[in-house]
Amino acid sequence: MNQPHKKPGIGRIRRIRGVERITRLSSALLTFWAVTVVAEPPAFWSWAERPPMGWNSWDCFGTTVTEDQTRAQADVMASLLKPHGWEYIVVDIQWYEPKARGYGYREGAELCMDPWGRLWPATNRFPSSANGAGFKPLADYIHGLGLKFGVHLMRGIPRQAVHRNTPIKDSPWHARDIADTQRICPWNPDMYGVNPEHPGAQAWYDSVFRLLAQWGVDYVKVDDISRPYHDHEGEIELIRRALDRCGRPMVLSLSPGETALTAGDHVVRHANLWRISDDFWDNWPALWEQFERLHQWTPFRGPGHWPDADMLPLGVLEFGTRTTRFTRDEQITLMTLWAIARSPLMFGGDLTRLDEWTLSLLTNREVLAVNQHSTGNRQWFRQGDLIAWTADVPGTADRYLALFHAPPPRRIQPDAALWQSPIVNRQTPGQGVDVDVPLHGARELYLVVTDAGDDIFGDHANWVEPRILTSTGELALIQLPWRSAQTGWGRVAIGRDAGGGPMRVGGRTITNGIGTHALSILAYDLPQGARRFRAFAALDDEGVRLDRGATVRFLVFTNDPLALPPPRTITVDLAGLGFRGPVRVRDLWTQQDLGRFEGRFAREVPPHGAALLRLTPLSSAAAAPTGPGAKELRAGAQQARTRSGQEPPQAVFGQHLDRGLVAFVLTNGHVFSSWRLLLSDPPGVQFVLERSPDGRSNWTPVHSEPLTNRCNWTDTTAEGRRWYYRVQALGPDGVARPSTPVRAEPVEGPTAFRRIRLQGNYRFDKVGIADLDGDGALDFVIKQPHQVSDPGVWRPSEDTFKLEAYRSDGTFLWRRDLGWNIEQGVWWSPMLVYDLDGDGRAEVAVKTAPTDVDYRDSTGRVTSGPEWCSILDGLTGREIARVDWPARGNVTDWGDANNNRASRHLMGVAYLDGRKPSLLLMRGTYTKMVVHAYNLVQGRLVPVWQWCGDDERPPVRGQGMHGVHTVDLDGDGCDEIVLGAAVLRSTGRILWNLGMGHPDAVYVSDILPHRHGLEIIYGFETRQTRNGICLVDARTGRLIWGCEHPTEHVHSQGMFGDFDPDNPGPEFYVGEKFKPDRWTYSARDGRLLRQEELGSLSPYALWWDDGWTRWVAVRGQIGPYHQPPRDTYEGRVVAVGDVLGDWREELITCVPGELRIYTTTRPSTVRRVCWLEDRAYRTGLAHAAMGYLYPPQPVGSWVPAPQR
């Protein structure tokens, strides 16, 4: 057997549990498996006995990181990550360049140096380094947090120092004596190499590392040195000696890769970690390649010497412009592979913008223990797409097991295309080819452009006049939104070329065309009855002009050309892992025991996904598998998982509600009472209504038998007295559970209402409705005075907005003045009242600004100054958390110069993970659109994700509505976000975009119960030639029906609900702003039922009577549709919702000095759980506190009501 090359004094022993095994690492290298053991371990190995864990500035700040940013990252690490073992803060490249920019490097850039040519921090970026301090103040700050400090260095000596011929400190030599001017980094021209044979070269590196030691550096990443490794061995040895002499332990990292495997012996004796690949970014091909690299480097992995798979590009990256492109499955795979292969963990995202998901990846103690403490880490098998790694748990007989489903990166297969063009280039007549493809009833269309084999990824390509022929006519493809657009560097655009200019083909300007480039894939959902696809596929004139290949191929598919394979079940032979008896299996990511297994078990893993398990041997007498899912696991068929690789979240929702009991003395002396049926009530629960003269004793039932078919009762024996009433719930256990007593209130007019008196005779603008004190009753937060100013018809504020909170019984709680910097008007001052942290008491989220500085300009506008979202304690009004509002930036970025479109602010609440509410902050409606999501955790707003429509391809602009709906549209338990004509996934990525502009009227519900899923109905303010009133599938955005007539400006929120008893299902009433046209449509099939005027563009449909047909409230009157009114109300309607009594809805109005809650006193024998138990309904009620008043809609309102 051939032994690898040995250096003097080095012995190499590689064993696994006493069994020697041989494997081929490459054609030139034969080794034993296991860890390299050196006879006399170098001292520096003790400086990194475990893989370093830390943060590096490159992925999120490139060359531009500053001292403030570095300190902010350190603060977060100290508070959130340090308890989990994270300790290094590393400032990456160009910290010495005052004018560094982005991710690039400037030829001849002026660098900061000391008199001996050593690089010095740029004081404009690191101000504490001034006056000769260098990095010491920053290092001291980081050390004071209990962390360690690292910096980046380029190999060699600054060219600037050589040009100036600076002296080398404490030596007789100068820079020109040691410079090797032929050895320049190919991608960063700042440095020359040094001649390692010259004695001055060692003196140079000695002086550099002494300076780093004086600053207190603990970690140094030396760049442009590990590739090609053998060319730089001399300088690596100089650096090693300099480090050993400098008097301070510093972990040495070598970069970039890939480091040659043949350098393994050398690198383990000179560095603590070394890169095994070039820069690693967030895409599956790069991650897939790391499996084999980490496998090959196994013999050289051990305490003090770690093959480095590079940083973790997770969270918010690239100056905050985007989040990681890895899916959640891929993020789990990344962390699992880095853990089981013990790669250093250097986080690359912005720690100050950690979302909860990313934080969970970084703080899972059981997963981090694999990286930090396991031994014997090795690949166990690789069988096609399935890979398994294993490792030992020190001090136990346990094993770690990582299972991966890792198919190779997908490639377009032209032979699988429905149609493909010949190669199209400059010589092609007309610069393109005709496309005419039969679709054979397909429901999906994929338009693909490839590079045609010339490896030039960027050639312009265009689908000119693309259209779909259907059974009813021809449909321009540009009228359909694409479901996804996968591109490289460019954006996809309508009527524009890939460079953003006008699309011109053969000298002709094209508006009906889709501009893209090679490589790209556009995916569409086809309408029913699609028969053919036709287009002209061509190069555009600009692409022909550019000095590129101008060579592409067009392809058409009707199924996903890059579809992922289905999940795979990996069966694990426990005997092959050395287990001879029963084993307990624990999932380290979910931190749950899966059960006990013997012989074998199976785990289903999604494509690009992973499982990380701990296997613990048990005694032979242990019981058979009993854990959750154990039966399915033993059979090798665990229940299918979602695409995220996690179990589908339960659609969790629950906020404490009391009975909501109301009692009103009617004009005939009877007392009508009504109360809630709760989701927590057992089936068959019975109710007993009782009354008492004083509310403390002598409780007497007011009916002879328990009530089983209703949640209201009229006490005909009350004789006009104001009795106290309570309702007892009787469950199957026979235990009576009484409600809080209420005293009967006299009806003061035709319609019953409850009054809350305000602190003055003013009107209010908006109301938030939620439980502020945790007693289960809904309380109220108002924003006063009433002011309807709109940024589009701006006028100076006459006063400041104040928030006021009142208990359900009318008790005043607190007032908060928002100050002059929050202009009066609904769009400047969104608020939302909701229990955001799950403690049973609602918080108040509100847009705020400083109150001690006046930022109004000479006209009274506020176009500068800080903007915040403040979280107020609902009971006291005290601020408990604050974050920056989505940034204003330059107001013209939002579409105009008068601060109108920059001043469109909204809020929302969504269950993004299906379990807890998240807060949404939104800016922009008509052009640019931005959404930031946060979770309120322990009094702190933790970022979840950020989204900007301009970052989408194509950009999503001008699709907003005047509110928001948050509903689980795809049935995974997590809420999607209906922004208007565009919908975001719960993960902060676009789901679909109609591209039709700004809708005013938008409602989401199960409008077509015979179809799977939900629907969204629209009325568009943006002019449409057709479909300005339409119904779409909520999951895909696919059109179900649309009006054929043109619409100019459908205005206001309209009215939606089943209010016409003569038409099955709900109706949709909308109208034009500047024309008399008003329409009532059947929401189910799009039939125009009537052209009619109902007295307002925004009447309200509400459940008020005994049945399922809603009544209409408009202009002070309530009654059945097209019938005389039966009840009346006073004041301006500020909310509609089920806030009191049984399942029927209340009308909340504002009159001077009062908030009124109008409620029905009509008996009903319909018994159903109150609407507030519906999550979509509850969040919809919360959204009524800002924007347009869209009455909340339960998700299943058009199906039979659940009777309990």
UniProtKB/TrEMBL annotation:
Chain ranges of the Glycosyl hydrolase family 98 putative carbohydrate-binding module domain = 471-596
**Known catalytic reactions:** Hydrolysis of terminal, non-reducing alpha-D-galactose residues in alpha-D-galactosides, including galactose oligosaccharides, galactomannans and galactolipids
Q: SUPFAM superfamilies, per this entry?
A: (Trans)glycosidases, Fibronectin type III, Galactose-binding domain-like, Glycosyl hydrolase domain, Integrin alpha N-terminal domain
> Which segments carry the region annotation Disordered?
623-649
* SMART domains recorded: NPCBM
- Enzyme nomenclature, EC number: 3.2.1.22
Highest taxon above the source species: Bacteria
What Pfam families does the database record attribute to this sequence? Melibiase_2, NPCBM, RGI_lyase, RGL11_C
Tell me the GO BP annotations in alphabetical order: carbohydrate metabolic process
Family that this chain belongs to? Belongs to the glycosyl hydrolase 27 family.
- The name this protein goes by in its record: Alpha-galactosidase
List the taxonomic lineage: Bacteria, Pseudomonadati, Verrucomicrobiota, Verrucomicrobiia, Limisphaerales
